[in-house]
Amino acid sequence: MNFEGLDPALAEYVPSLHPALDPHLNPNLLQNVELDPEGVPLEGITVPESVHIMEGMYSELHTIVSEVGVPVSFSHFDLHEEMLWVGNHGGHATSFFGPALERYSSFQVHSSDDIRQIQSLENGVLFLTKNNLKYMSRGGLIIFDYLMDESEDMHSLLLTDPGTLLVGGLTSHVIEIDLNTVQETQKYSVEIPGVTIMRQSNRFFFCGHTSGKVSLRDLRTFAVEHEFDAYSGSLSDFDVHGNLLVTCGFSSRMNGLACDRFLKVYDLRMLRAITPLQVHIDPLFLKFIPTYTSRLAIISQTGQCQFCEPTGLANPADIFHVNTVGQLIMSFDVSSSKQAMVFGDSEGCVHLWADSPEITFNTYSRETDFALPCIVDTLPHLDWNQDLMPLSLIPVPLTTESLLSDWPAASSIPAPRRAPPVDPDILRTMKKVGFIGYAPNPRTKLRNQIPYRLKELDNEFDNFSQVPESPIGREEEPRIYMVAKKYRKVTIKYSKLGLEDFDFKHYNKTLFAGLEPHIPNAYCNCMIQVLYFLESVRCLVQNHLCQKEFCLSCELGFLFHMLDLSRGDPCQGSNFLRAFRTIPEAAALGLILADSDEATGKVNLGRLIQSWNRFILTQLHQETQEQEGPQAYRGIGSSNFGSSGDSVIGQLFSCEVENCSMCRCGKETVRVSSTLLFTLSYPENNDKIMDYEFAQILKRSICLEQNTQAWCENCEKYQPTVQTRNIRCLPDVLVINCEVNSSKEAEFWKVQAEYAFKKKILKKGCLEFPKSREIVVGEWNELGMAEGGHSYTSIEELKNIWIPYSIKMKLSKNKELEVYNWDESSELGMLEDQESTYVYDLMATVVHILDSRTGGSLVGHIKVGETYHQRKECEAVQFDMTWKVPAILYYVRRNLHSKYNLHIKNPIEASVLLAEASLARKQRKCHATFIPLMLSEMPQAGDLVGLDAEFVTLNEEEAELRSDGTKSTIKPSQMSVARITCVRGQGPNEGVPFIDDYISTQEQVVDYLTQYSGIKPGDLDAKISSKHLTTLKSTYLKLRFLIDVGVKFVGHGLQKDFRVINIMVPRDQVIDTVYLFHMPRKRMISLRFLAWYFLDLKIQGETHDSIEDARTALQLYRKYTELSTGGLEPEEFRKVLKGLYEKGRKMDWKVPEPDGQSSPKSAAVFSSVLSL
């Protein structure tokens, strides 16, 4: 606020200038109020009950002293809580809670300077003094303290968005500050003498100058768009609402300043002045109070308040007076709900005006946290008459004898406490509708009190039909759980480090790598593992390489390579799933899920994984079909699936089938096609389900016969047709979709398991059953408990099993198919005609776990041999249809691998490192940032390569706040690689980058993280980018070639880089500087601080540059080798690290800002780089 031209005593506060409050001036108001020796009330002045507050008219509601004798400099209604903030000329801030103005907190913001503006945020409050911006909690704790230059004279601040702040004052510039990093990001020039008031609308920034002008500035560039010359003297205040701008100020008269009683009104649509508004007081403050109309509140320094319309006439009858007892008004504010106004005077009093007796400062305020009451040493009084008082509050005396409560638990029974009587007020005010009574809450109980309930009643009314949206609600409860523990879905609990500190080894102690489940559409992880352990498929996709950008075979090969290199460490299929999401057929089949569908159980995972199984086999078959000439891009439609089986996938899975359609007119049509899998077809469910062997159902499903309506060319119309299917050959891998999608199919499996159990028990001769009747459905549940000399475990291993471990299939000379359940005791009967007889062994089963707590999951049983987590073989074929439902079965022909070439030849050649064209159209106009490798520079094993990568965010982190105030991460943010840089680590061109690829992306980017990555919007768009843009697959092949050659990567924080790139690098090929200069149980040190401490380099000034970071990491490694192997003993090197940590603690791990002169080492230090 500009006070130029006013009373000089107000420009610089002198405590003895203003007299103390005189109680004789208004004896009726100060009656029965206790005064201190100077005559100032010690408590708040309450409005007498006789004063009636009229609804809709503002009247004084409460008056309280903030600090005796110290003028109020600024007042502000909190925008998030029911609080009022007051700052004074002594640098002290005080907050008051609610309309009663109960003192909430009080603390010193600055030792001497006055508080010039206050702005409330969600987590704290901003205070602006002359050259200091302080962010403090509502209780007074400092969150950050931003010091400006001593020559600064700041007066106003403006919050443009939740993370950005503008600060202006009597200077030649306005500063933009990032509240997240507490750094100055921009500095905008303004005309002298500066900006003292700032406002914002959806079109402009409005800046009020002490010269009497108001400038309208662009929201993006802060450039002046228009300017109003309001007053010849000075500007005191202005406000903006809708299309109107209203100002008040001072005019130059008789070599001095006089308060102008004309309010200048401007139309922002036409950007010109309209009819000014004449008022009857000397205006110093004004604010719009838009409720039913756009009223203006105009305040004079003497305490007069006038309300009027900005486009109407001011009525003298609308003038009210603030009872300041002769003091001057120093501050004014209106609450966001427009129900309250506050005035601060020069004596330190705060006057609250309201339009009704019951008001709220905000329309929606959150609950305010209050300090806990002081804990006293004396024990509280226990009221024995309270029915809900816990007996544990009574301390137990020390005694050597047994107590009455020590009797055995078997002699005790639960005795629930009787419910307390209903409150008489509820019975008195209760109204009845039928047999239901309702009454208003008398509010005689404390908050958060609930009636006493039995745990048994709570369990009885539990609702498990829906999956909680939050993982907090998915915790296991201490009750009988239907799903076996080893099949329950593990909910990953993320910390602030994400997945880095999650112990996957606790769940997997084998050397087989698992796949992380938190990625979108990771429901297919179990099927990826099944395909991985099919050695023929694994070798096929790892030998495959094509130029198609999104090729599932290539991405599956890259993923299988990672699983080969991993020694039990978890891998993630993010690149494979990224390519999977781009396939239009996958989206058309509904295979791509939204993030919420899989987590909340809105999708049938069993049906979904069967559709995915059919899709992936078809896709791999099309992508790996052999063609003449070099491999090139091949669209999905270019292959003629069904007529060609020349791919390895076709040889493994394809089965040639003959479909015959017979019309009732006698017309027969035969069509030959191929299929990669079979779907089980079940018999019609009659009154009683008959006993079937699995082989019978399988044969019925392969040689399918069904009646349907089909077009008959002979009859020239649709006719009832009998369609039959017969196979001409047998596949090497028999894939079966179980198609258990309803309770009817589940009941069929359950009954067949009961029949199979009965026959196995009879075969063992353990139990005798009456031959006059069959076992009733459900009777097998009691057989495991029967006493007959057999062990309970052996009985359990026979339950819920219907499918065999092996199947024998024979195709006769007349193409008749025979299918039998097979076991080892039947092996002698198979010797005849072995060429046409196949024996299939069960290789994998995929089951759907029905779990209402987590939405269900998919689990795969894979036969891999002896492992640490050895499971019983029967678990793979036992299906409890209430929670464990079969989805997919894989049977593999015996001696399968003998007929396929299982040798893996790395298809990635050195040519991937040579120069390539950029996808960006404008890249040729810009200077190249790297020099590709020449043939003579091809890396060898052991060569050093500096690497750094930058990322962008695709999905923000999902988190929620628990009831205790702690933050719980539901899902970490999803990152995508945006730039990968590799620099030469030795030779004459050491430090020169040979890879600097920007990765083109088709997915929506939520945050480019420009401050940390240097990536700007448009850099990854091929249409407008000026960078060397390429595909992720192209850059991935370059890194894979370097890894396969055996180079050693040097970088800082490479673990995260490789994780986001989705590539596995052997540990002996990684040199991470974050661990080279790290002491056990200490914090990790940033690259910027290490470069400053060891190399005297200042890097990462405004943004990060991957070339600079990669070179710096190489230099740090050179420094490390110099310190560790250059003569320093281990103890001396440890002292160097201790000195590093001590220096970091002293400087708060921050690099000092440059003093204006660039450091001689701020540029590249490699001499070879200077030639660029």
Summarize the structure.
It contains 22 helices and 52 strands. It comes from Laticauda laticaudata (Blue-ringed sea krait).
Helix/strand layout:
Blueprint: H1 8-11, E1 45-46, E2 59-65, E3 72-77, E4 83-88, E5 92-97, E6 102-108, E7 117-120, E8 125-128, E9 132-136, E10 142-147, E11 154-161, E12 164-169, E13 173-178, E14 183-189, E15 195-200, E16 204-209, E17 213-218, E18 224-229, E19 234-241, E20 244-253, E21 256-259, E22 262-267, E23 272-273, E24 277-278, E25 283-290, E26 294-300, E27 304-308, E28 319-321, E29 329-334, E30 340-345, E31 349-354, H2 424-429, E32 431-433, E33 436-438, H3 455-460, H4 525-532, H5 535-543, H6 552-565, H7 574-582, H8 584-588, H9 595-600, H10 605-623, H11 648-653, E34 655-663, E35 668-675, E36 678-679, H12 694-702, E37 705-712, E38 717-727, E39 733-737, H13 743-764, H14 780-783, H15 792-796, E40 806-811, E41 817-822, E42 837-849, E43 857-862, E44 884-893, E45 944-955, E46 958-961, E47 967-971, E48 974-984, E49 993-999, H16 1010-1013, E50 1029-1030, H17 1032-1045, E51 1048-1051, H18 1054-1061, E52 1070-1072, H19 1073-1076, H20 1087-1095, H21 1106-1125, H22 1130-1146
Helix pairs in contact: 5-6, 6-7, 20-21
Protein name: PAN2-PAN3 deadenylation complex catalytic subunit PAN2
Cofactor: a divalent metal cation
Subcellular location: Cytoplasm, P-body; Nucleus
